[in-house]
Design goal:
By secondary structure, this protein is an alpha/beta fold. It has one domain: Rossmann fold (3-Layer(aba) Sandwich), CATH 3.40.50. The chain contains 7 helices and 5 strands. Strands 3-2-1-4-5 form a 5-stranded parallel sheet, sandwiched between helices. The longest helix has 18 residues. The radius of gyration is 16 Å and the shape is globular. GO terms for molecular function: nucleotidyltransferase activity.
Length: 193
């Protein structure tokens, strides 16, 4: 087991495949840093040609809300609080990653699309130790945050796609209303184009 590991993602909404990734990395290290990409409005804009990843509808939750959501899920999955931390991860400004994350950590990744491949190249260009947990075809990826947000917006069942604590957090704080509102705007704008 290594001392320190890092994972990263937007986690907009944290779902069970995200937890699979986080827990697979945690099983390999004593301390895991969970990096939140797109931590604020100034640090958005993925470089792969996918404008949807940077829209407000694709990023409905604030850094703090994602922090709380992940913390609740880690408690639900019985990960001791001293064995992880949640920090900003400015992947769109890679020169700042070392300001938030330990450079001597192992950076864990799961690869399944062009953006994952680009993040892999970015981290390798920084001379970081990157370990690929798995490579999957995009079609075999399983649940995605966009799917969860779409289910929420369309009033379809989504509780089975996320940790119980995430479902509770999003419903009790009425964040589902924000997600519905932003997703419906996105769909309407797409229909106009």
């Amino acid at each position: 087991m290594i001392e320190t590991g890092v994972v990263n993602g937007r986690f907009q909404v944290l779902h069970l495949k995200h937890m699979e990734y986080i827990l697979a990395a945690k099983m390999r290290c004593r301390k895991l840093y969970i990096g939140l990409t797109n931590p604020d409005g100034r640090m958005t804009g993925d470089s792969v040609n996918d404008q949807n990843r940077s829209t407000k509808a694709a990023n409905p939750l604030t850094y703090f809300e994602r922090y709380e959501m992940i913390k609740g899920a880690m408690q639900e999955f019985k990960v001791p609080e001293q064995e992880y931390d949640i920090l900003p991860f400015p992947i769109n400004f890679p020169e700042y990653i070392a300001n938030y994350m330990p450079e001597d950590a192992t950076y864990f990744m799961g690869l399944s699309d062009a953006w994952d491949e680009e993040k892999y190249k970015i981290l390798r260009s920084l001379k970081l130790d990157v370990e690929v947990l798995w490579r999957r075809e995009e079609k075999d990826r399983g649940v995605s945050a966009s799917w969860v947000r779409s289910c929420i917006a369309m009033d379809e069942e989504w509780a089975h796609l996320v940790p119980k604590s995430v479902y509770k957090y999003l419903t009790e704080t009425h964040l589902v209303d924000r997600i519905k509102h932003l997703e419906k705007i996105r769909i309407e704008e797409k229909m106009v184009l």
